[in-house]
Amino acid sequence: MKEEAVVQTQQSIGTAFKQGSVAGMPIFLGYMPIAIAYGVLASQSGLTIFETTMMSVLVFAGAAQFMAANMIAQGALFLQIVVATFVLNFRHFIMSMSFMNQLKHYSVPWKFGLSLGLTDETFAVSALHKKEAHKENSKFFYLALILTAYFSWVAGSFAGALLGEIIPKQLSDSMGIALYAMFIGLLAPSVKKEWRIGVVAVVSMLLNYMFSEFVGLETGWAIVLATVVGSLIAIPMMEEDDAQ
Amino acid sequence: MTMLTILGMAIVTMVPRFIPAFIMDRLALKPWLNKWLNAIPFAALGALIFPGIMTVIEDAPWIGITGGLVAAAIALLNVNVIFSVVGAIVTVYLLTI
């Protein structure tokens, strides 16, 4: 669209793609144990290998898939599961606003395509690579990052569904910490560089705690509200390029 | 029926993801709005970590917290995220033996 107007670092499609895969590698490795744990849980909940894998192909949202597998095991109804998924995943709307602002100069079809691959992790890692957006062929950087994560998620789910019974429950339980560890691993280096980022994160944590424990909001809405309100304190506190 | 549920989940997940692809370029962004959008990743990560991390092992919130502290300590060494992930899994595994 208006890409001519942006000063660009030259870069071939191949280079951009390779760099994007490298940036996505931590997500690839982090998703693998979680996806396997999901696959194990889903197949134990009575989903077939095909259904378990297709949920990863079509939904691509970790927390919601764990929840859905649990709800299916408990015999929840179609509408309950779909509504709960909407509530839990609505945070991606807020994240996508931030991500699309970063990719503002892309054409609409590219923005549409990349937005479909947005998860907590692909969003966080992309946001940590803001400067890439102004390089030539940077679309392929983000595409590769997302595809790397997606491949890991789908392949891991399939493997987990196959392994089903073999993995001991204690190990798959322990893997529940993996997502949180990844969030912490993504956040900590930025906090080390800029303490104000730590303030924003801690305020959001406390808000989320308050909204979910004391106000009694559903997890999904509590996260959305804590994210929106928590990031507002950055406006008086941070410079425009602090978060770059 | 399960496939129908999965399709329903796919649709309600997809729509909030792509709507901003169509609306964000129509908004002329003021600097304060940019600051807000730039801070969203960090606020979201905070909200995703806590208090959810306390529910990793049912009825033992301190196990999740300990795993998280180990992950944070490793992350501060500026090593790849995967080391935080592995360190936290091992910690939780050992604590639940």
Overview of the structural elements:
The complex is a heterodimer of chains A (244) and B (97). With 244 residues, chain A is mainly alpha-helical. Chain A contains 13 helices and no strands. Chain A has helices at residues 13-44, 49-58, 62-73, 78-89, 91-102, 108-115, 120-128, 138-163, 169-174, 177-193, 195-214, 219-232, 234-237. Chain B is an all-alpha fold and 97 residues long. Chain B is flat and about 55 Å long. The mean pLDDT of chain B is 91. The chains are: A mainly alpha (244), B mainly alpha (97). The interface between A and B is large, with 101 and 70 residues.
In short:
The complex is a heterodimer of chains A (244) and B (97). By secondary structure, chain A is mainly α.
> What gap, in angstroms, lies between the N and C termini of chain A?
23 Å
- Total discrete domains of chain A: 2
**Poorly predicted sequence stretches spanning 5 or more consecutive residues of chain A:** none
Net shape of chain A: globular
Order of helices and strands of chain B: HHHH
Largest sheet of chain A, in brief, is: none
Tell me the fraction of residues in β-strands of chain A, as a range.
under 5%
Q: From N to C, what is the helix and strand string of chain A? A: HHHHHHHHHHHHH
- What structural class is derived from the secondary structure elements of chain A? mainly alpha
What is the gyration radius of chain A calculated from CA atoms? 19 Å
Number of helices of chain A: 13
Number of domains of chain B: 2
Chains forming the largest contact: A-B, 101 and 70 residues
Shape of chain B: flat
Structural class of chain B: mainly alpha
Mean pLDDT of chain B: 91
> What is the residue-mean pLDDT of chain A, rounded to a whole number?
90
